[in-house]
Write a structure and sequence with these properties.
By secondary structure, the chain is of the alpha/beta class. It has a single domain, classed as Aldolase class I (TIM Barrel, Alpha-Beta Barrel). The protein is 41% helix and 16% strand. The protein has 12 helices and 13 strands. Strands 3-4-7-8-9-10-12-13 form an 8-stranded parallel barrel, surrounded by 5 helices. Strands 5-6-11 form a 3-stranded antiparallel β-sheet. It has a two-stranded antiparallel sheet with strand order 1-2. Strand 8, helix 7 and strand 9 form a beta-alpha-beta unit. Helix 7 packs parallel to helix 8, helix 8 crosses helix 9 and helix 10 packs across helix 12.
């Protein structure tokens, strides 16, 4: 209810300003009890060797700096993913770089991995008191040549390993030049081989094997899906996050800001993201966990991802349009979907 009142005020601001302001003020209403969020139902899920209190998580991108984990954790998420973090600080792309498409319940962003860098990022996480399941999303600096991208990912993995519940490897943002080339066969194979080998050394050093997840685009053809599934299987990657934002503008043609460069998220990419998820489920046959993201604006959308093969789901754009109530709605619908599937299998 409170978000419904606040939304017109937030939407009167520039989208990035509203985003920053919301995060900066998030602790205040939560601590004072002004934001009434129902206790999340317990819907335990085991995935990637981890025990999730419920299957609904926060997607990367909302808290890029890892500075707001404690506030976000109070919204009932079963897990939180922060980042994308890059080895060195970088400003990202020039502003404006975030646009609302309210008629379509969508966003277009070309943030470009704006990042505080590993040092400040880890300091922020060190101040957080929450000890729930934390995913850390890693990427490369914009000025790192694509042929040396693996160096950046390796540096990030080594630095965040001890703090992460799992690490997400982001090779699918459309807003860093040439980044999606890392989804192609040879480049992806080399990157995952490097990170898998490093993960084994880090597991021995820390006495704990941290799962690796690969975040992919929704704009994949059948051949690319098959090649990604093969690489995930070959290198023992634990999960695939399907999907990132889309370069397609299907469903938003003619709307203000639809032709802005960047990745489209929200309701218009739901079907595309779910189709990619289902294709990965068919190709992987249960050999990696699938995390469904993209276009979840209702609890039924989250349940649809579970039906398509996801074990976990994540929210971002839906929170902009629906607010915190969406979290519990999605948990409840995922729970009902699981009960229905369990009953049908008897």
């Amino acid at each position: 209810m409170l978000y419904a009142l606040a939304r017109p005020l937030l939407f009167a601001l520039d989208p990035e300003t509203a985003h920053t302001l919301t995060l900066e003020l998030a602790d205040v209403p939560l601590r004072l009890g002004l934001l009434r969020v129902a206790r999340a139902p317990a819907v335990p899920v085991r995935a990637m060797g981890l025990d999730f209190p419920n299957p609904v998580g926060l997607a990367a991108g909302l808290d890029k700096s890892g500075a707001h984990v404690d506030a976000l954790a109070k919204l009932g998420f079963g897990f939180i993913e922060v980042g994308t973090v890059t080895p060195r600080p970088q400003p990202g792309n020039p502003k404006p770089r975030l646009f609302r498409l309210p008629a379509a319940q969508a966003l277009v962003n070309r943030m470009g991995f704006n990042s505080v860098g590993l040092d400040a990022f880890m300091e922020n996480l060190g101040r957080a008191s929450w000890r729930g399941l934390l995913g850390i999303n890693i990427g490369k600096n914009a000025d790192t040549p694509i042929e040396r991208a693996a160096d950046d990912y390796a540096a990030c993995l080594e630095r965040v390993y001890a703090r992460a519940s799992y690490v997400a490897v982001n090779v699918s943002s459309p807003n860093t030049k040439n980044l999606r080339e890392l989804q192609e066969d040879r480049a992806l194979d080399a990157l995952l081989a490097r990170l898998a080998a490093l993960r084994e050394r880090l597991a021995e050093r820390h006495g704990r094997r941290v799962p690796l997840a690969l975040k992919v685009a929704p704009d994949l053809d059948a051949g690319q899906v098959g090649a990604i599934a093969d690489a995930v299987r070959r290198h023992g990657i634990d999960a695939v996050i399907a999907t990132n934002t889309s370069v397609s503008r299907e469903g938003v043609e003619g709307l203000p800001h639809a032709n802005e460069a960047g990745g489209l998220s929200g309701a218009p990419i739901r079907a595309r993201a779910t189709a990619t998820l289902a294709a990965l489920a068919a190709a992987l046959k249960g050999e990696a966990v699938l995390i469904g993201v993209g276009g979840i604006l209702r609890g039924a959308d989250a349940a649809e991802k579970i039906k398509a093969g996801a074990t976990l789901v994540q929210l971002y754009t839906g929170l902009v349009y629906r607010g915190p109530d969406l979290v519990n709605e999605c948990i409840s619908d995922c729970q009902e979907r699981s009960r229905t599937a369990s009953f049908a299998s008897r």
